[in-house]
Amino acid sequence: MASQEGRLLMLIDDEPAQSRLVTALAAREGWRTLVVESCDEALQTLASKEGAQIGAVLLDQWVPGDGACDFIRTLKADHPKIPVMMLTASTSPLLAVEAMRAGATDYLIKPIAPERFLSALRSATRREAPKDELQPMTEKLSEVLDFDAMVGTAAPFRTALAKAATAARGHGHVLVEGETGTGKEMLLRAMHQASTRSKAPVRLVNCAGMPGNSLESLLFGHEKGAFPGAFDKQVGLIDLCDGGTLMLDEIDRIDLAIQERLAEMLESGIVRPTGASHGFRVDVRVFGASDVPLDILIENGEFSEALRDKLSATSIYLPPLRDRLGDIPALTRYFLSRIAEQPGLKHHSIADSGLSLLEAYDWPGNVRQLQAVLFRASVFCDGEALTAESFPQLAELLGDGHRGESRARGLGVLLYQDDGNLRPLEEIEADIIRLAIGHYRGRMTEVARRLGIGRSTLYRKLSDLGIDNAA
Q1: DSSP string, 21-44
Q2: Which of 226, 227, 277, 420 counts the most CB atoms within 10 A of its CB?
Q3: What is the DSSP letter of 1?
Q4: What CATH number belongs to 7-130?
Q5: DSSP states of 292-328
Q6: Can you identify the CATH homologous superfamily of domain 155-317?
Q7: Would you list the DSSP string of 167-220?
Q8: What is the pLDDT along the chain (471 residues), one digit of tens a residue?
Q9: In whole angstroms, what is the distance from residue 386 CA to residue 421 CA?
Q10: Residue ranges per domain, the chain?
């Protein structure tokens, strides 16, 4: 494996423009890029002295075409420790499944999103033992746009949804704050779908990773000749969204000067393209999302207080998953049902051992990470249910400390055997009765009442099931 200094990325690609982009992006993280134009050349390079320095491979699926997965298998057979990422124009979940089964570490959609690529590169090549199942695999499932897809019953989460539903029917700007992966973008889309502007123009901009001048032109537009390289006039998204909604994700990453310009536009309702002598009035509703609390950035002089004030007519906070662990069972069932709809995958249930493992983890990547872990486990699971064995890297991270009582559910009743099959109903019923007797400290009248049966029925079941009523 390549050393940390002078890390080398091998790009298998025959598109010069894309090769230049990947080379520039990888350089941000201190990577050199070696471009080869064919799979044969890639294998020859890997077998050479220079190949020993290669720390990761990025494969454009277009190069080998239908044989991309076969090539990945060949490469991984000879070089099992080198992470391989596939780049493709296809959004087919089936191709993602096949690539992962062939040994791909990650799967990226063209055109390359800078932050997505850099995140995949970091995850694939972290120095500690790779936690493959915890890497971001978020481009496989299309987003559902309504509030019904926002699963959870935790009080702070329901409060956030209630505020969002109320705000969606209004006309003011909205600010959504929360950690990465908590579902901010999904909430913005659901709000737009439920708003009176749902049929009007809408654009979503991820502000992270875009150079300031590019983002400024994208939002405000520019006149021909406004600056060197402005060979043509560009209409800005604010203009295009007149009468509709502009959604700005990761707004905390915008340059301060652009923040001030946005605040001025929201105050006056007038947008002026760069290089234009005059502006024009627009009616744009702005939804902003931030991974970092803006108050902290304002205190540090890193965010415009005026822009925060304009956006926060309604301010919504999405809690991290670690603060709503009780929602993990419902989220897991929901994601598994959606994953089962993808070509090449089947429906899986989840055994108690697997669910307890999921509930024991802190989920720094939040709901998005949970979805990614379940997707990866479903790809490789041949049984009917996901068990603890379906999440080996997660179990390794947690060690033996996760075993025993789940933090979220407390002492429960196991529904599945270790092989993933359901336990016999008689065994489950016996466990429930034992649990009730222990919970109500042997008060049999209370046990019968809580179980919804008569005392005589309870004692008959104790006899039939061979349960000691002192259990």
Answers
A1: HHHHHHHHTTEEEEEESSHHHHHH
A2: 420
A3: -
A4: 3.40.50.2300
A5: S-HHHHHHTT-S-HHHHHHHTTEEEEPPPGGG-GGGH
A6: P-loop containing nucleotide triphosphate hydrolases (3.40.50.300)
A7: HHTS-S-EEEE--TTSSHHHHHHHHHHHSTTTTS-EEEEE-TT--HHHHHHHHH
A8: 444 445 899 999 988 888 998 998 888 888 999 999 999 999 999 988 888 889 999 999 888 878 889 999 999 988 988 999 988 887 777 777 888 888 888 888 888 877 778 877 877 776 443 444 555 454 555 555 678 778 888 889 989 999 999 999 999 999 999 998 899 989 999 999 999 999 999 999 988 767 778 889 999 998 888 888 778 888 999 999 999 999 999 999 899 999 999 999 999 999 999 988 889 999 999 999 999 999 999 999 999 999 999 999 899 999 999 999 888 988 998 899 888 887 778 888 888 888 889 988 999 889 988 988 898 888 888 888 888 889 988 888 887 655 544 544 444 566 666 555 677 888 888 878 877 876 677 788 888 898 999 988 988 888 887 776 544
A9: 10
A10: 7-130, 155-317, 425-465
Query: Cα-atom radius of gyration of the chain, to the nearest Å?
Result: 27
Please report where in the chains the tokens 């539903």 appear, as a residue. Answer: 165
- Using DSSP, state whether 11 is helix, strand or coil: strand
The strand pair at 385-386 and 84-88 is best described as unpaired
Peptide bond into 111 cis (omega under 30): yes
Residue for token digits 């309604």?
314
- Rounded Cα distance between 195 and 218, Å, is 24
Report d(CA 91, CA 290) in Å as an integer. 27
According to DSSP, residue 244 is labeled: S
* Intrachain domains 7-130 and 155-317 with the same fold: yes
Report in angstroms the alpha-carbon separations of 40 from 74, 103, 359: 11, 18, 45
- CA nearest neighbour of 332 among 409, 398, 249, 413: 409
Q: Strand 84-88 vs strand 31-36: parallel, antiparallel, or unpaired?
A: unpaired
Output the pTM of the full model: 0.70
